[in-house]
Please model this.
Amino acid sequence: MTKTELEIINFINSHENTLHAMSIVDIAFDTYSSPSTVSRAIRKCGLNGFNELRYRSGNKARSEEIQSMNELFNKTLIEAQAVHERISLTDILAVIQCLKEAHQISVFARGLTTYVGQEFSLKLQLLDYDVFFTDDPNIMQVKASKLKERDVLFILSLNGQTPELVSSAVTAHQKGNCVISCCCNPKSRLLSCSKISLVGFKHSHQAIKEFEVSSRIPLYMICRIIIDYMSTYS
Model:
């Protein structure tokens, strides 16, 4: 370790009882270093990063609220890491190429995933792409049947089993259009009728169990990666 990294570790050890209340920025400020240096020092100690350090600190503090919050942070981190590990960079680039060459991009989504689709569509429009978005099942089927030769169908679905989305994908696929599916189910029916599929990770945790509300973070992440690349390198 460098001298700065050793000072960071000494600081962490001397503030073990209050570490759960601190952020990585707080530690960097108090040690006259940077968040990246703090993260590097923690990793050299055999931990995966600051999140694991704070999680262990929370357990030592024996505070149920702190432990619960750490567990929630950890679930989000697991989702983000899983998406990063599972998504093929080649597939992402292939999706971007299809979108760039499209005459019009139709984005279909249902339920809570509608919000992901709306944001994704708006950002594509801001990048001057011709985008059509709908969450209406009747419009989906009609639109899918009327896609033109260079039109692309981009489908967002958490489970990838929504009947109207699958039906639209089948219709567009049979017509010869480029169908791109983005879901979190490796066994989704969408995969068989898609030219390119981006499959994220679905955590078993549900925010509101009564209504089976699952996180859409993986879908947001995938869409953000696509938009960020297109806005930066187009």
Strands lie at 105-109, 131-134, 152-156, 178-183, 196-199, 206-208, 213-214. The first strand starts at residue 105 and ends at 109. The mean pLDDT is 89.
